[in-house]
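Hi P.,

Sorry for the delay on this. The queue was packed all week, but I finally got your sequence through. Input first:
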Amino acid sequence: MRLATYTLHSDPQTVRIGAQINGSMLDLVAGERAMDDGKSIIPASMKGLLALGDTGLARARAVLEHAGKNAARLDKKTLAPDADVHYLPPIPDADKFLCVGKNYRTHLEELKRNDLIKEMPGEPTGFVKLNSCLTGHGADVPRPATVSRLDYEPELVFVLGKRAYGAKAEDAVSYIAGITILNDLTCRDTQKREVASGSRFWTSKNAPAFGPLGPCIITMDEFPDPYDIWVTCSVNGVQRMRVNTSDQIWKLPDIIPHFSRLLDLQPGDMFATGAPGGVAVGKADAEALYLKPGDIVECAFEKPAMVLRNRIV
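Then the structure:
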């Protein structure tokens, strides 16, 4: 399934959760009502749906199947054409959005060459991304006037589907409901100053709208191996990078136990798993490649196919 949080251009005030079906978006709450089977368990938020665990996802699949067979009976708000859909971050209100840093071998080499890291990590490292910085697929992202080196960073994000506290490595994958894409836009000039000063609080990571996320959560049944996904980034239609998630240093059996030692992870919490190699800062012509107003940035998975598209303004 492809699960999304969205509004409609024709009804911008109502936030909905839905699932993609044949080029349209099904409102799962309204779709469940249309089943008329006396059951009503799907809540109005993605975090609430994930909190129901396997029961919630199974119910969403049943609603999706019913809609596929009865599409002609559904109104245009219940089953909306994609052109009417305004995507929000799939989970706009996660309790915790943790970003694993320094997690691709190729990217670490780029950072070392540019004096943006001083040593290789001996264990998973991370920082917190604030909900207030998240924005959705298709949104404009303002580049502050004080920023001159805005870099693109497509990242695989894992979404938790059940509580994890003191998790074991062998159970790590079982906690994941699905994946999505983050463009963890980074201000390299600010980052370099912070590294030089020894600061660990990267304010550039939490600037408003500096976290395009989505457009959907792809549930785990749609792909066989999260560590064999090709991740790409294109700017104005020109591919800038392509890397496989197998290049990650710290994987789920490392990440989930490490952070759940002290944190009570909840359904809807997210882990971004780091920037791959190939970002602008790692290239000889970096100054020409940093993002500028008007640039269209597309971060994507090749298979399962999904594209997160945003414009820099």
